[in-house]
Amino acid sequence: MNEIAEPFEMSLPAVSKHLKVLEGAGLISRSREAQWRPCKLEPAALKPVDEWLDEYRRLWEERFDRLDAYLRDLQSKGKKRGRKKK
Predict the structure, then answer these.
(1) Residue of 18, 25, 23 lying closest to 40 (CA atoms)
(2) Is 39 helix (H, G, I), strand (E, B) or coil?
(3) What are the extents of the domains in the chain?
């Protein structure tokens, strides 16, 4: 646990508490090897989050594409109007 706590300047009890929360959420698993308690990331637990984010990523990409097309249209109309005034 010292290795995990060191870069974050956290106390060992705080790290232990965070690891218990992550383990309870199924994001990590821990095993025992003598005095060691190795932690393993469980990436499958993040799949629902990834799917949810992907859905919203697509939604926002579509909205930004429509906004981009609208702004290009406005810009081209503005250029056409500008030419008539010359």
Answers:
(1) 23
(2) strand
(3) 2-41, 45-85
